[in-house]
Amino acid sequence: MKTIRWGLIGCGDVSRKRVAQAIIDTPGNELVAACRRDPDRLNEFCESLSIARRYTDARELMNDADVDAVYIATPVRAHLPQTRMAATAGKHVLVEKPMGMNVAECDEMIDVCGKADVRLGVAYYRRFYPIIDRIETLLKSNAIGTPMAVSAVTATPLAMQAGDEGYWRTTIAESGGGALMDVGSHRINVFLHLFGPVAEVKSICGTVAADYEVEDTATVLMRFDQGPIATLQCHFGTEDPDEFTIIGTRGRLRACPLNGDKLIIEIDGKESIETLPPAANFCEPLIADFADAIRNHRSPRVDGNEGRETNVVMAKAYANGS
Fold first, then answer.
1. Residue 163: Cβ within 10 Å count
2. The Gfo/Idh/MocA-like oxidoreductase N-terminal domain covers which part of the protein (predicted)?
């Protein structure tokens, strides 16, 4: 099996918590280089993980001949230019969510990677949860009848001040949006995977408890072309209830928390519970799939087109909000 050699661009919170270790621990993958503008923080990060090649300029990492693929974990505004650089250098690209600041950026990312014949994936790792696979199977078998509604509530205890690491999430020029873009995008991606295209989107977004440029709370209402009505609540500044429920004409499916291992299945008044734990490191299946996509010249399971569709829904929510 060909080893995929990775460069990591951005050594912030998500990289420290999951991404770097997922690359290191997934068979057939090697983390050979990392990039961060702050040299002291870069060295601290690389020392903790024994990463030899260290860059403060992303372009230099892109031009490293020993790097096959890059994981882009930078503020959203950097996703397009860094994807463009990577594709030009012949590197495969796995980019953090949301994919881009807007749909036009997603389109350009898809285009440049297609022309360069490199893989493009988006880090919606919940698509690899066994709970999601099981829900998909139950829906396809009509186990709960006709799905009528799907709902999710998600949040992060993000409470930041200017100068804090990650404060970029609260500024429109860096993030493109607030709670909806940052935590809501994951749930929208799952909705689209399970129920297909969305016909109508409405929202209410606002800053309620914080003094951010972006919304710290949003409620989104979606109507699918062929399927249920969906509601999504997403918030900055509170603990994550992580609720996910589908209501059908014969029963319900509940994963509360979605990041947990229990799926509650109610069919015709009878309840059962299945235990379906995710990977200990949520990002490992994502990394494994992307590496396999490179080796076998196929699209990754969560490709640029899927990432784009999530951005389409968010754009409609912002455009049709109050």
1. 6
2. 4-124
Cα 170 from Cα 53, distance rounded (Å): 31
Q: How far apart are CA 69 and CA 26, in angstroms?
A: 14
Q: For the stretch 35-57, what's the b/e string if a residue is b when 16 or more beta carbons lie within 10 angstroms of its beta carbon? A: bbeeeeebeebbeebebebbbee
Strands across the sheet containing 120-122: 53-55, 29-35, 4-9, 69-72, 92-95, 120-122
Query: CB of 27 within 8 A of CB of 285?
Result: no
Cβ burial of 252 (10 Å; 0-12, 13-18, 19+) is: middle
User: Tens digits of per-residue pLDDT, 2-38?
Assistant: 999 999 999 987 888 899 999 999 999 999 999 999 9
Residue 225 CA: distances (Å) to CA of 143, 149, 228, 243? 21, 13, 9, 24
CA distance 80 to 112: 10
Q: Which regions of the chain are under pLDDT 70?
A: none
Retrieve residue 50's tokens.
């024994």
Which residue is listed with tokens 């940052």? Answer: 182
Alpha carbons 88 and 66: distance in angstroms, whole number: 15
Q: Which domains does the chain have, with CATH numbers?
A: 4-125+282-301 (3.40.50.720), 130-277 (3.30.360.10)
The string of DSSP letters for 59-74 reads HHHHT-TT--EEEE-S
Q: Could you count the other beta carbons within 10 Å of the beta carbon of residue 148?
A: 13
